[in-house]
Amino acid sequence: MIDKTILEQHGLNEEEYRLIVELIGKEPNLTELGIFSVMWSEHCGYKSSRVHLKKLPTEGRRVVQGPGENAGILDIGDGQVVVFKIESHNHPSFIEPYQGAATGVGGILRDIFTMGARPIAVLDSLRFGPLSEPGNRTVMEGVVSGIAGYGNSIGVPTVGGEIYFNSCYDLNPLVNVFCLGLADKDKIFYAKAEGPGNPVLYVGAKTGRDGIHGATMASAEFGKETEHKRPNVQVGDPFKEKLLLEACLEVMDRGLIVGIQDMGAAGLTCSSTEMAAKGGLGIEIDLDLVPQREAGMTPYEIMLSESQERMLLVATADKVAEVQAVFSKWDLDAPVIGHVAEGGRIRAKFKGRVVVDVPVDAVVNLCPAYRRPSRPPSPLPGKAPLPALLLPNDYDRAFLDLLSSPTVADKEWVFRQYDHMVQVNTTLLPGADAAVQRIKGSRKALAMTVDGNPLYTQLDPRTGAKIAVAEACRNLACVGARPIGVTNCLNFGNPEKPEVMWQFEQVVDGMAEACRAFDIPVTGGNVSFYNDTEGLSIYPTPVLGVVGLIEDIRKAVSPGFKGPGDAVLLVGENKEGLGGTEFLRVAHGLETGAPPQIDLELEKRVQEYCLSAIEAGLVRSAHDLSEGGLAVGLAECAFHGRGRTGCSVSLEDAVRPDTLLFGEAQSRVLLTCRPKNLARLEEMAKEQGVPVKAIGRTGGALIAVDHRGRGLVRVKVEDAFHHWKNAVPDRFKVRTEEGP
Amino acid sequence: MRFGVVQFPGSNCDFDTFHVLKDVMAQDTVMLWHKDHDLQGADCVVLPGGFSYGDYLRSGAIARFSPLMQEVKAFARKGGHVLGICNGFQILLELGLLPGAMLRNKNLKFLCRHVHIRLENDRTPFTRAGRRGQVLRIPIAHFDGNYYAPPRTLAEVERNRRVVFRYCEPDGTLTEDANVNGSLASIAGIVNEGGNVLGLMPHPERASEALLGSEDGRVVFDSLIRSLGARRPRNPVPASREKVGHDR
Predict the structure, then answer these.
(1) A427: nearest CA in chain B?
(2) Domains (range + CATH), chain B
């Protein structure tokens, strides 16, 4: 009865089917095939990525839980842990931007609180096509409102993030959501079924027909028609999730349950089989007891539904009444739908008939892993030499154009739609180098950032990945935080294309090298392949989410100039090279050349220098240089300061003036200090072997940059500010008629 | 004195308000559960921000029917002090304890940002620690904060000096730009006729610790403590008054 067409619809090949038959010792029925289809999908099974991800360092003294659980866990001392992860919701967000993004937030929040942690911060990494296209504006508007609609309602602040615009995301926008929660170390919960005979409880929303095969959908390319896939996208109910969050944290806090797992991708199937597999046991479920939203649902639909806001719990029989009382307090039902069983099988009954009976090990652990063929693209995009570039006629104009590029420009239009202050921990507002959340009742704080420049990784995947790790850590160093752990979201095209697989391998290698250099463990993450529509792949887009710890919040530093008269210091060195820069894209329309190179040893020294200077209390402001280079960095420091103080800077480097202003050489940071502390900072730099130069002073109404005695830039801070501030909102202004 | 913070299932500023009252202002503070009929002897009831019952229908529309709100209504009618912040303000409007209604923000988007508000009346129990004309920097975070009232109601509210806060520029002037959500007469907060019920959209609990960028919101809590004859704060939390080099 299972034929080629059915297999194709389930995203399984014949070889995989033969393996299934061998593993379960029979021909699967349709429901069983559906279960294998989702659990062995790329999204759940990591078929193409598993062999490579093993290369990432996952150990460290703070690691309580590495990859393999709902989220990673790090010890931050004083009996507390942080639980964090990043996940993608790319495919749903393209089909239905609002719900796709909203349920992306809902899903990652459940991953965090299912482990016993209260989520305290969300950050988003978003990628869209250029805003000149109305379709891209619609997607961005929908995604931003979806994140806002869900996060604001549930009361978890969205405290930061980043957005890049590039036409490679026209038909494949990316929505990566990072969430971090805080828990007591002795109250962590795992997705593990224990104690044969223990009841299994179903809590949260009723099961509907939404989201069936969401995971399979996320594991295939899109064609022209995506409209009909809309029913595959789930619909979120943040109020229900809020109830679920409070009720789950309450039963966990009171120690009433033994195991818990959220129903995310692959719903009931994934949660039940994973819990059973982790406990080395089985689970028996009566599908008639599963609360259903619609009449006439089949076992297939019940098992594969991805309806949101649902959890599966295991409790001991004597605690069931207490658990149900807590859920009832929060107006949620918690029916018992089955029990933990010996024998390692998932068995589901429907109207008295056994409709599923397969070994959980086969479903969860024996998904085949592939080492797919890989091949570098020819020619390598980053190897093509840049044409001879004319110097700009007007540096002021070039500077303002760069500030108006949506990738560089202010994103307040986005983050003011997010409640970024709820929970009263937000110490630095969005827009700073990293988000900083204080921990109540202590002097400690957590810093978080998400980062990844897709153009660098497109041109040189390995270097791009190293830079992504380095820059995220540099962002943390600029607020005074030491990195303690990493999560990553790897967004790529179709892994069956050898060129995509090559990009993936290069990125994983680069990440592994950089994480080892910084001695930070990777505690989990997510791989999103098949970001292809109509045969076109996105740029390889690894997004790094790095968490840092600040031991004393009083020492934290923000990027804005703190007033006139401070010395401006440049840490690191200006270098030649415009390949892969935002300036090259904006001014010359080119996305070519070799991206900036990175020396990880120098990078580490630069960061350690910044941290020691900040910890010594010598630094008034710190900001890392990234897209748009030194000129944009100076402008951002001016814009972020309360009084919008300008600065005047003069440079002597033997570097082309456009590169000096807008080049993106790595391992550079702008610091300011009181003049009396300058000598001490220079001395520290010498001791630590870090190039540091005093390049100017803050003050005045201009951003002024001189090069070897020649005035390059003279722009009023207010003018520059308006370009930077209005670039994004102007693109969303209501248009009464479309232009030509 | 004792503060009671109401907890609806979808409240999300309940813990924040509790934290500020208890740990920062060092006041006796209890949580009040929406299904109960017990105000636990609170001298001031605070309705915190959030999405009371999901607010899918209209902000605060369901909350007015909750068991606890019947007690709050009776408490307010007897002169008890009630403070509604954000969603709490919306609920007070739905309950009929304050006049008017909330429309969507003028830009039709959720807005979370610091705003400036001008203190218009320093003779209420919620504002006596401040002075008239004082400009406070306090965050807002709402979708429906565009205050509306029919002309006659508005005239009466204005005549009786019941407008307590208005959105303004940093120097205190009223402009269309500063009126971020489009409220009638830039209204950010009003009191009832008896002066014992205040609703405001800005979040004073988010502006009560220097570490988070502003302490201006303490005016409201300090005023209440002074009005209701309580002791001065005894043990401010060690980290709460410490400053970080904030940018904006």
Answers:
(1) B212
(2) 2-247 (3.40.50.880)
